[in-house]
Structure formats: structure tokens, C-alpha cells
Amino acid sequence: MEVGLQVHRPLSCRAVFHERTLFKIKPFLGSFPHVKTSHFSSLASCDKKYPARGVSFYVVASADFSERRQRKTSTANSKGLTPKGFTRTSTQKRDSENNEDKEGSVTLTSSEIVDHNKKAIELKADVDEEKAIELIKDKKFNKDKKAEEALSISKTVSVAKSNQGMENGRAGSVEDKTVPVDEIIIEEKQFGNLKSDSTVKEESTGTDEKTTEDEESSLKLRLKMEENFRKQEIEGLAEDNFSRGNKLFVYPQLVKPDQDIEVYLNRSLSTLNNEPDVFIMGAFNDWRWKSFTVRLNKTHLKGDWWSCQVHVPKEAYKMDFVFFNGKNAYDNNDRKDFCIPVEGGMDAYAFDDFLLEEKRREQEKLAREQAERERQAEEQRQREEEKAASEADKAQAKVETEKRREILHHLMKNVARSVDNVWYIEPSEFSGDDLVRLYYNKSSGPLAHANDLWIHGGYNNWNDGLVIAEKLAKSERKDGDWWYGNVVVPDRALVLDWVFADGPPQSAIVYDNNHYQDFHAIVPKSIPEELFWVEEEHQIYRKLQEERRLREEAMRAKEERTARMKAERKERTLERFLLSQKHIVYTDPLGVQAGSAVKVFYNPANTVLNGKSEVWIRCSFNRWTHRKGPLPPQKMLAADNGSHVKATVKVPLDAYMMDFVFSEREDGGIFDNRDGMDYHVPVFGGIVKEPPMHIVHVAVEMAPIAKVGGLGDVVTSLSRAVQDLNHSVDVILPKYDCLNLSHVKDFHYQKSYSWGGTEIKVWFGKVEGLSVYFLEPLNGMFSTGCIYGCRNDGERFGFFCHAALEFLLQNGFHPDIIHCHDWSSAPVAWLFKDHYMHYGLSKARVVFTIHNLEFGAGNIGKAMTYSDKSTTVSPTYSKEVAGNPPIAPYLYKFHGILNGIDPDIWDPYNDKFIPVSYTSENVVEGKRAAKEALQQRLGLKKADLPLVGIITRLTHQKGIHLIKHAIWQTLDRNGQVVLLGSAPDPRIQNDFVNLANQLHSSHNDRARLCLNYDEPLSHLIYAGADFIVVPSIFEPCGLTQLTAMRYGSIPVVRKTGGLYDTVFDVDHDKERAQAQGLEPNGFNFDGADATGIDYALNRAISAWYEVREWFNPLCKTVMEQDWSWNKPALDYMELYHAARK
Q: Residue 659's closest CA among 118, 1137, 94?
């Protein structure tokens, strides 16, 4: 049993040493082994709990106690119960009882042993709740009888000896000493009772007899002893360090986290030896944590020792510092700085993780504060808008009131109280809410032969519409064919308004409306007119407010739903992006979270590592730039799913991207690095965001301000999608004199520069939220009234490309990527490499995109040579053109990336050109309404028939012979067909004009050919058609089929280029669709003849006729597929990073 002893009265310790026993004390840092220890700073509190009287006894200690491990503290509590944190078991009780019978078995728990002069050991017995220093017996000695009777139980003593002292439970580092010991006698200086925890338990009431004076005396003595010991140890350290020529030491010597230390500097040994003031300036953990500056003070120590106190934080693993004079004189350890290791706390990696957690918390705090500021700003904005709207409503109510007042005054001038032989009211004097009887002479008007008579009425010039509907009854009056009705006068009526009819509202046929003037009667006892108009204005104001509230709520609900659908679409697309390579690599979980462990699954069977006996993964983060560098190669283990192998990777908190490649051996060998692109998986929830990239597009088209074909759409939509990923995007465009500037916001002249023998003006504006720089050379090259079509187009666009690079150079732009498009801006690639790459734009890389290989093959081939990466607009088209001479040598850097459509422009939920907004949830109702509107607009028969739409340029590339065949085939199947498009070739245009005349004559109710471009009509066709036919002979990407699916129309396409990549046949392409994370979505065909298109179109029309319960859900499915720029933007960002790798 361990017994805590408390010193109540001062004790002195005397050691008597005999030759027959050696007592070996090995000073060390930390706690003594097999002991429960307590901080000396807690002694005072322990004294208050366990007062004790002086006693003499013998202690025997082993000579090797410094080699044993440490244990925690156990102390007796204030009521004499089992010590806090320590549970006495029956075994312990039995051991205690047995120990009482053993000679020399008494052990005591002591708080401090001080070696004052290396000749005697003074002991002070004590214990508290945290630490104690334990002494283990090596031999047993006889115990003094009086001490045995006083204690009556076994006790534990902790004894330590140090020639450098101890503070806060830590001892200085000294040499081992061997001392002959016979016995250590502790004599009573002041007699009293010594209480063990058993004694305290039995005599707990005795503790109430202690006095405040006793406590204070004990505390003062203890503090004095501690201070004396500390001084002696520091003096020893100072003397020792000075003798060795060390100008610096700290106390305690073992620095631990979350403690105060004293730093000592011998000024005479420092470069500051002549300075009157000395300061320490420092921080922790390589100067990254909690900086400090403290003045040092001259000490009492021998020599020129100065000191100060510094608190070591709990997060520290190293203390870094220098000394200086408060001005410009430093002692920085020969420019290496001073540093002291901190033991027992964090290491550098743990501190890095701690900093990341701190940064995360700081970011969360900043995010909350920002959200609160935004909320308050939004509330303020709403209040201001509400105030402005309220003022506007009041003004409008005032205007409306004056208008009504003027009309009513004009009306009241001509109003009578009755008309002889036509109508009158009884009583003649009445007011609002009165019940009156209105008489009507049936024979006076057009209702003379009506069987029934009704009054339809209102008040104040029909201000609230129809509010009175009463059937008239036959009157007993004999001087005419009089009828009457009982009418309650509206309470706010100044004038009554009515007509007579032969039936109730919605059923009457014949009316007497007083020759289109209606009937009116003054209300004689109406409310005062001024009060009425005040109330009227207030009512109008409230009505306007309510209408505005409902309108704003509907608009807000629609905006929220649009944003929610957009976010859901992005989420689905990201999941599809992550699964796009599942046949090779994927992670579990799919969405990798920073700070978590993730499993990477890899299928070597589908890669160059097929058949290899081993697979190793090499992994890093943040596109191989993470501060910890690449992780060591890890051998992957066999997974449960087929040929896959797996490895587990810990993702750090500061990761935003996970990067990996695979190899056959630990030291390399054959690598799978995805053809130089590497494998990348985004990491979510990290505290570090991906640094934004700066992309500059140099192009000659841009929708909607300078659009000729699909190139303009790509430049705008791709730029917006990449900018939405938090990257910086600029566009450089010629300033044509035919620009549609109505779509340019904040358009203004910015500056001029000279190049190419001419002045070039730079204009700036925002197009679809993008920053656009317009270059206007004063040589007139772009003042031609057109984009293409000049004889010198090559010269014009070559000049523009060179001028664009010069603009970047002269204006200090340093883009990461310069993206050029098609033959028209292809010269950027070689001009950059030849003239600018080594002269100020070295950071940039060039990406070149082929939109159509039909034009400018020479420029395209040269750009392929010079570009860092090149693309075309779909994977299948990239394969179809791979054999072309300009492309074939560069397949290693040639990639196919699908185009997308802009979901904000093509959005059936927010489309102003269609009659009913719809989503996938009400696609059937929405498309039905659009079909009816389309039939009405074009004069087609309003019938529930399959409607085929064709929206295209009429060129041979688009398969015009197949288009004609599809029109006739649809009509043969009793369907309707609508074509919208025109031909740049007059011969083809005239051919379709003749076809249109023929069809409008023979099938006027089921066919309509609109041979021009009509933007609103195109939206209505996409929404109203059941099918959209795209039978192109070749199609690099194609946007028509993508837009059709956005509106729930089913595409019927030929299998080529981007059409094959986006349309998956419902009967034949289920597996191909699933590989892309999609469901089948249309009908496709091979060949370029009538048989092929008949096969697809007949299946489509038959499905519409025969299985509508299957066809309607298909419309919903295609609407929910995301063909926006969400995924292509991610693919392009991968390509941009690969270009910079």
C-alpha cells in the first residue's frame, strides 16, 4: 500500500552512512521509476489536505533506481479515502497488511531531496495529486519502533539526489555518485502526529484542528527550500558553462512543452559584451509559431550572466532565437541563430498538421464571418430595395388613384338617380351596405322578349369588376313590364354600375347595356369623397405591394430551383468525370476528402502493365507540388474484384488534388502515366485551394458578338465554364466594324500601342461575364464589314495573331496558357515559339484546337508542330482524322475533348421563346404545349402526331440527301416535319425552295420548311419536336443533338464524330453508354444511304406510336443528362496542366 505523507511542521534530514551498504543515486531528467510523482508547484494544496507532524524513521533505498520506468501519481484525498486516480484492490490491501509484518518494509512517498553540500541529504516528505519521486528498496533495515508505531502501515518514499537540483519535477543532468549508506534518519524537530492515509481515513475529523498559521508556515518553508535548491543548481550550471566557454544555458535543461524556462546569456562571451541593454527575440518551430521579444536582466550569478523567462507553448518542438541590443546589434550564433529542442511534444510533421488544422479553423471562422457579412449586406440590400419598391408602389398608387378619380368624376357628371320608364331605385336615398330594390322596365330595351332577367353589376366604374349578380322578379306594377331585383349596395360605392341580361354571368346571350354605356346611379349617401380617395389610394398601394410580393416570391423560387438544378447537374457530372476511367482506376470513396484515408483501385489488365507480376503506385498531391513531396512507392495488393489491385493512401489536409502513376517495379521499369497526362483525382474539403490558372484565348470568333459557326460558341462557353472553376480567363478578339456591341457591357477605349507599322487601339468590355480585349489596327484590316470572306483573310488574321502576342508582351501579361483555335489563329503557336517564348512570355504554354479540318490544313499542320498540346472537338473525330498528314506525326499530344452547350442559353425552364417552362419532371406537359404553339405558329394541323425537327445549315457535310429522305419518310409515316435552316450555296438554297413549295402544296398541314435563320423559332422547334434528325456525313462534334436532348427531344443521328460520342442507341448501345456513366438516349445508324436512316427513323416513330409509356420516360432521361461544358471544362483543365507539366 502506498501512503501519502504531508509535512506539517519543519523537518530536517540527517544521513548516516556506513561502509556495509552503498547508496547509489543517479540524477536524471524526468520522473524516477516505479513511482507516482507530483509537481512541486502543487505542494501547497497537498499540505492543506494532509497535515502531518514530525517523526523519525529509517529509509533503505536500492542503488539502481534510476534505471526503472516511470509511473503516474497517486495521492490521498482530503477525507483520507483512496488516493485520487488510484483504486485500492483487495490484493493491495493484503499486500499492505503483509508488509506491516515485514522488517524494513516501510516505504514513504517524498516530494523533494536536496543535496546541499554533497555531504548530507535533506529530505522533505510530501505527496500531491500529480507526481512523486519513488525510492525502491534493495536491502531491508530494521525500523525504528516509534516510527513503526506511529505509522502502523507501509509507506512509500521517493528519494533523489542531484548536484544540480530539481524544479517542477525535473532534475539537472549530473554525474552518477556512489555514497556509502548505513541508514538515513529523519528526526523530529517538532513533535506531533504523523498520519497515513489509513490514519486520515479513521481520524478524518482530526484534520479540522489544523490552523491557518500552520499551513502558511509549511508553505513558506517549502518555497524557501525550493528556491534555495533552484539557486544552487543554477549557480552550478552557470559555473560549469562559463568554465567550458559556453555563453548560453537554459533552466531547466530539459525543455518541455507548456512550461516556463529561464534563458541565461553570458554577455561577456557574446558579441553584445559592450551593450547596456540585451533582448532576446525568437519564435518556435523554425520561426513559424508565436514570436516573442523579452528584455534580459543582470543576475546575481558570478560572471556577466543575464537572464529572462520565456514560456514554451504546448505546440513547440524547437525554440529559435537571437539576442540583440534593441536596435541593430545582434548575436545570432554566426548567422545560424540559436535553437533549443523541445522534448516530449510535437514533432515537425505533427506541428505541420496542427498548423493545417489551425488554418482550417481560421478559414471556417473567416467563412462564417464572411457569410454573416454577406447575410447582413443582403438584408440591407433587401431593406433598401423594399424601401425603394414601396416608394415606387406609393407613387404608382397615387397616379392610379388620380386617374380613377378623374374618370369617375367625368362619369358622375352624367349619372342620374333614375330614368323614366327604364329604371329606378327604391328607396331613392340610400347608402353603402343598404338593401335596395332596383326596378327595370323589360319592354324598354332589347330584353323585351327574354324569359329571364338578371342584373350584372359593380361599382365605381367597375372598379372591382363584377360583384353583383341577381335574378329579377316580376313586379306587380301595372304601367309597364316592370321587373325588380334586390341589391346590396357595396359599402364603398360612390356610383353603382350595371347591365341587364337574359341569364346569369357566363351564360347570358342578350344584354341591355344602355347602348354600350352601361347603367350608372349615384349613391346619395356615400362616404365623404375625400375620405374615399384616401382609402382608395391606400387599397391600391396594398394591392400593388401584394402583387409585387407574389411576383418576387415566384421569381425567387424559380431562381433557387434553377440554381439547385444547376448544382445537381454539376454534381452528377463530377461523379461521371470521376467514374470515366473506372475501367482503369477509381477510388473508394469516390469523393476523396482531405485528411482521410482512401483506397485506390487499379486494373492493370486494361493498361500497359497487363500481365506484370507486381504493380507499384507512386502518389503525391497538388499536381506533384505538395510540400512533403511524393510518397514512397507502395506495392499494390490484389483486390477482391477481378484483376484489380489496391493500395491505401493517407490524404493530407492541405491537398486539393491527388496524383499518381503506376509502375511494374519499385524502382520503375514500365510506367503507366496515362500517356503523359498522369492520373488525377480531385480532393474535397482541403484547406488549400488549387491556385488559379490564367488562360488567354486568341480567336477571331466569339458568340454572340462575332459568331459565324460553332467556333464562336466554343470560345465563349469554354471560357465561361473554366472561369466558373475559379480560373482567370481573357479573350483577345479583332475589333470588327460589324461587331454586335449591344452584347458588350462597359465597352470603352483603354489604350494604344504601336506594332507592325501602325497604331493599334485596345478596347475593353465584358461579354457574357468574360474580359475581352478588342484590337483595332488603324490600317483598316478589320473595317471590311465582315469576319470572313476577304481575299486577304490569311494576311488579316496573321497580323492579328502577331498583334495579340505583342499586346500580351507590352502590357505585362504572363498567362499560363495561350489557347488558339483553327487555322485563323493557328499562327499564334509558331509566332509565340519563334518570337516571344524566350523574350518575356516564357511562362506560357500553347494549346491549339482544331474545330474543322476542312479549312487551312497548312496552318493547322504548322500549329500542330509548335503547340504543346492540341485537341479536336470529340474523341471519335480525333480518331477519324488521326491519319491526316498534318496530324499523324503528333498523335502523342493530340486529344479529343467533346464540346458542350451553354445550359443558361438553352434552358427550357427559363426560355422566353416557349409557352410553358418545364423541367424533366413535367417534360410531357411542357413539350405538348410547345408542340401546339409550334403547330399554330407555322399553320400546321393541331393534332397529336409525331413531329420531326431538322435544324441545320444546308450543306453536303450535313447530309442534305438524307435530310430530304427523312422528310418524305416522316410524311409517309403520317408524321409532321419542320425544317429550319439555309444554304450558303445558292444552288442548294434554290433546290430547297422548290422542295418547300412542293411540300406546302401537297402536305400543307404536316410539313413546313423555313429557309432562313430564326433564333426564337429554333427554341420552339427544339421544345415542340419529338425527334431531331442529324444525318451528317461527318460531324466533328455537333451541338444540335445536345441541344435537342436538353429540351427532351430524342436525337436520330448518323454514327460519326461527336454524334457517335454523344448518342447511344436504345437498342444497341447500352454497354457503351454505361461505360460513360449514361443511359441510352436516342437512335443512330451506319451508312449514308436511305436504308440506314430509315432503320433509325422508323424505329423512333414506331416507338412513339406504339410504346408511349416507354417513350415519355426516355424524354425525361435525356433531359437529365448533362451535355453542358461542366465535364469538358474539367477535361480541358487536365490538358492545360499537362501542357505545363
A: 1137
